[in-house]
Every structure is written in structure tokens, then in C-alpha cells.
Amino acid sequence: MADRDLAEGHVITEADIWARRPGSGEIAAYDFDKVVGKRLMRSVVRNTQLKWGDLG
């Protein structure tokens, strides 16, 4: 989940995302490290659940 507003093209850092419960999103908490370093393909607002298709 996005911990703040993020612009399209932003490269995800640990500070940008947070695993929240109940964990009903597409990306599981154990995939946290796979998300860090990925580039956003669209802008997202705070508290938006990320999907694999959002990442490039």
C-alpha cells in the first residue's frame, strides 16, 4: 500500500510503501522486497493498494 502520494515514474523505496492488515491486496506482504526498486507506471495516492500492473 502506498504510504504517501507517489507520481508516475517514481522508483519505490521502503519509505514509500507499507504492508497493512488484513492483507487483502494483490501484492502480499512477503513480496515487499520485490516491490522496492520498481518504477510506478501510474500515479497513486496515499493508502492505495498497489497491484503488479502498477509496477514496471
Any chance you could write out the topology, listing elements then pairs?
Elements (H helix, E strand, L loop, with lengths): L31 H4 L21
CATH architectural category: Alpha-Beta Complex
Examine the coordinates and then state which fold CATH places here, giving the name of the CATH topology: Type Iii Antifreeze Protein Isoform Hplc 12
Order of helices and strands: H
**Total of helices:** 1
**What is the number of domains?**
1
- Please bin the fraction of helical residues: under 10%
Summarize it.
The chain is largely without helices or strands and 56 residues long.
Protein described:
With 56 residues, the chain is low in regular secondary structure. The chain has one domain: Antifreeze-like/N-acetylneuraminic acid synthase C-terminal domain (Type Iii Antifreeze Protein Isoform Hplc 12, Alpha-Beta Complex). Helices cover 7% and strands 0% of the residues. It contains one helix and no strands. The protein has one helix at residues 32-35. The longest helix has 4 residues, at 32-35. The chain is globular, with a radius of gyration of 10 Å. The two termini are 16 Å apart.
Characteristic key phrases:
single chain, 56 residues, little secondary structure, Type Iii Antifreeze Protein Isoform Hplc 12, 1 helix, 0% strand, globular
